[in-house]
Amino acid sequence: MNYRVVEVKKLAGFLVVGVFSLCLASATMAQRTTGPPPGAGPPLNNNPNLDDRSRQVDENKLRSAEMDVVTEEKNQRLLQAAIANMKEDFSRIQVLRNDIARNLVARKPLDYKLVSEQTAEINKRASRLNVYMRAHVPADEKENNSPELKSEEMIGALVRLCKLIDSFTENPALKNAATIDSKEIAKAKENKANADRDLLAIIKLSGSLQKKSESLRMSQ
């Protein structure tokens, strides 16, 4: 296994869902004339009620434009916050994966308390990433409901978790989403499906590992 920390690249393109629709309405000021030029026809209706109505329409347009500006600024802040959270989760999952891998390579006895904490955090951060990715299993695939882990399966399951994280973080769908060529749409969809599959497997396996390691810790 490769135990290096994967550099986070182009993660802004990682927002496959949750892109905000931003629009700014332009305000137009209605022109009002006090009267027609000589010989231009009958005089305009100078009813003050009509003037008030026109002024009210103009004011409503201005208020609408101001509200749109505020909405755009708010959406931009939300977008930037979402990208920052995703970068942090993406990076932290890799750090945790490397910590687990180093202990496995060193053949240290499993510290169930540590494993419980590590897998719980991986599960939390992967689940939060999925809020944006909305990963799903293809309709033609059945979800794999694996039985509860046994104590002798813990090391193998941790190795499998490390490999899943490697596959997920190296997926081109996450690295190159912002530079996909129109001729590569089919491949991009396949990559996204693989990323979805890996992320769901990470969430499920980390949850099982956390549950089992906590059980083993309590029984010691």
Shape: elongated
Radius of gyration: 28 Å
**Structural class of the helices, strands and pairings?**
mainly alpha
* Structure summary, number of beta strands: 0
> Spans with pLDDT under 50 lasting ≥5 residues?
1-37
Q: Which percent range describes the beta-strand content?
A: under 5%
Largest sheet: none
Q: Enumerate how many helices there are, as a single number.
A: 5
Order of helices and strands: HHHHH
Distance between the termini: 30 Å
How much helix is in the residues? 55-70%
Query: How much is the average pLDDT?
Result: 77
List keywords for this structure.
220 residues, mainly alpha, 61% helix, 0% strand, elongated, disordered N terminus
Q: How would you describe this structure to a colleague?
A:
The longest helix is centred in the middle third of the chain and has 58 residues, at 48-105. 61% of the residues lie in helices and 0% in strands. Residues 1-37 have low confidence and may be disordered. The chain is mostly helical and 220 residues long. The chain starts with 47 loop residues before the first helix and ends with a helix. Helix 2 (112-133) packs antiparallel against helix 5.
What is this structure's SSE topology?
Layout: H1 48-105, H2 112-133, H3 154-169, H4 172-175, H5 185-219
Helix pairs in contact: 1-2, 1-3, 2-5, 3-5
Brief description of this entry?
It contains 5 helices and no strands.
